[in-house]
Amino acid sequence: MPTVADAVAVLERHYPPETAESWDAVGLVCGDPADEIRRVLFCVDVVEATVAEALDAGVQLVVAHHPLLLRGVHGVPATSYKGRIVHRLIRAGAALYVAHTNADVANPGVSDALAARLGLLGVRPLVPAAIEGTGTGRIGELDPPLPLREFVALAARALPATAGGVRASGDPDRLISRVAVCGGAGDSFLAAATASGAGVYLTADLRHHPVSEHAEAGGPALVDVAHWASERPGLDDAAALLRAGLGTDTVETLVSDLVTDPWVLHGAAAPSAPPKETSSTP
Ligand SMILES: [Zn+2]
Prior knowledge:
The chain is an alpha/beta fold and 282 residues long. The chain contains 9 helices and 11 strands. α1 (4-14) crosses α9 and α5 packs across α9.
């Protein structure tokens, strides 16, 4: 029977911890490396709901994308929600492991899964890292090219549904062939997306001013999707890598489809029609 340590070894072969950003907090959060594992749950966020899902399923290991404990931690009392999560996991004999920015830059990584869902061809890193094929974000080609409005519909179909849905900035008729993507909050790569020659850049957590300024400067169209939806596809690859690395049938992997995006409602009123141009003839 494989152990937590065996799973960590496989995950760290694909997602080396030293490739994580310096501010990140990846690796084993709680759990005994010597414990045996039979069932593993993969999720984007370690929150009350995904922990309940994991424990109901009887897993011995939760592999999460986002760190539970990122900033300075001075205690994990069960009176705080994060402390409660740590207590629940330890009491149930379940370990917690995090692969975050190291899973973003890996190949296959989080943005590869996103590119695959969109059917992109010739996929390569948007911001390459030292090792061939790795890096942040991906670019690829759409064949055939699609107008932006159809690309948005494609993204909405291809990604898991969320309350936030998919929104876009740009000319709806702009023909898109090259696509840049970045799972998670990707607004720091707007300039890289422009430099890549992409017709559209799809990422999450985009904000008014960066988007407005980017659009005014004539950059690629932008598609903003829910953060969770942009990272959920990568969990399937992570689960497959773990199964392959441990030898098939030794562990069962589950992937959480609980939508942990914090936005739960979306009110969409149609924008008011632009003012009619007044004719100069009476
Ligand atoms: Zn993220």
